[in-house]
Amino acid sequence: MKINHVAICGMGALGMLFGARIIDHEGPGAAHYVMDARRLEKYARRPFYINGVPRELPMRDGARDVPADLLIVAVKATGLADALDTMARCVGPNTVILSALNGITSEEILGERFGREHMIYAVAQGMDAVKMGERLTFTNPGKLIIGAREPSQRENLRSVCEFFDRVGMPYAVEEDIMHRLWGKLMLNVGINQCCMVYEANYGQCVNPKGEPYRTLIAAMREVIAVARCEGIELDESELSDYVRLMGTLDPEAMPSMRQDALAHRPSEVELFAGTIREKARRHGILVPANDFLYERIQAMEAAY
Predict the structure, then answer these.
(1) DSSP 149
(2) Antiparallel, parallel or unpaired: β 143-147 and 135-137
(3) 24, 32, 53, 91: least surrounded by Cβ within 10 Å?
């Protein structure tokens, strides 16, 4: 199947980044953002900017939408449950669904609602995009790591690869996509949570002389231990690779969890420390660094 039109659910940093790339290469008719009527009324009157340049971003009411060839889900994990109904009319018999959400659970939630045969799995990696209000800034667009977990998803993967080649979307295909999803979870457990807890940017958290760095490494090592109990063989060399990747990001930028704290929004802590704590209990593993981060973030959110 050839992908010609894309629906994007979510106008956060990644949603805007992906949509702008598609529109720049294929024109404004190639992609639109789907949302509920309340958000449409709110956003339709607002100007949006990407690296200071004003952008036209087509939007539609989900209740009146039609099936897309590709649906990119880029909402916050805290809003996924509510977004399922909003995006439902975008999904037809041949629609491919790609989730750019963090964590290791969104593909299962989407597959249960719309059918696993629609899915491909994805990891967004290397972006330093920051969205504040209607303004998106970034220096590194990163890339999408994509893959099929089941044979029924192979044709979806081929279609998405052809489309990404056409629009110049940076991507790579990963054969063991679940391994990569766990690797990204390890990264997020460290950098996202530590930036929020220590009220820090990327540069401050990857400074080897600081407490945030020590906590970050400890939390990531706990992910390695839990992953191995889940049949995923992460190791120290991969941890080192992700730490080096963090060092390539804009040191003054910050991840979405730090932005959530500044805006007094609920964070994705349940996706990160919450997931690791739950699985650690099941396997009888102690995860004190993730316990600390989880409890601190819960206290920060309670004080909003």
Answers:
(1) S
(2) unpaired
(3) 53
CA distances from 10 to 99, 170, 217 (A): 11, 20, 31
What are the chain's domains? 6-173 (3.40.50.720), 177-302 (1.10.1040.10)
- Answer yes or no: are the C-beta atoms of 212 and 258 closer than 8 Å: no
207 Cβ neighbours under 8 A, 6+ residues apart:
213
Residue environment code for 253-279, b if the CB has 16+ CB neighbours within 10 A, otherwise e: bbbbbbbbbeeeeebbbbbbbbbbbeb
Q: What is the pLDDT of residue 248?
A: 86
Q: What SS3 class is residue 80?
A: helix
- Per-residue pLDDT tens for 21-73? 999 999 989 999 999 999 999 998 889 999 999 998 999 999 999 999 999 99
Contact (CB, 8 A) for 124 and 141: no
User: Greatest CA span in the chain, whole angstroms?
Assistant: 54
Helix (H, G, I), strand (E, B) or coil at 199: coil
Task: Give Cα 243 to chain centroid, integer Å.
Answer: 18
Measured between its terminal Cα atoms, the distance across the chain in Å is: 47
Specify whether the CB–CB gap between 57 and 48 falls below 8 A: yes
Residue 215 CA to residue 104 CA, distance in Å, equals 22
Residue 194: Cβ-neighbour burial (10 angstroms; 0-12, 13-18, 19+): buried
Secondary structure of residue 72 in the 3-state scheme: strand
Residues of the chain under the 50 pLDDT cut: none
Token readout for 121 is 């799995």
Question: 45: phi > 0 → left, psi -120 to 50 → alpha, else beta; which?
Answer: alpha
Token representation of residue 45: 């009157």
Picking from 65, 69, 7, the residue whose alpha carbon sits closest to that of residue 33 is: 7
Q: What is the pLDDT of residue 192?
A: 95
Kindly report, residue by residue over 211-222, the tens digit of the pLDDT.
999 999 999 999
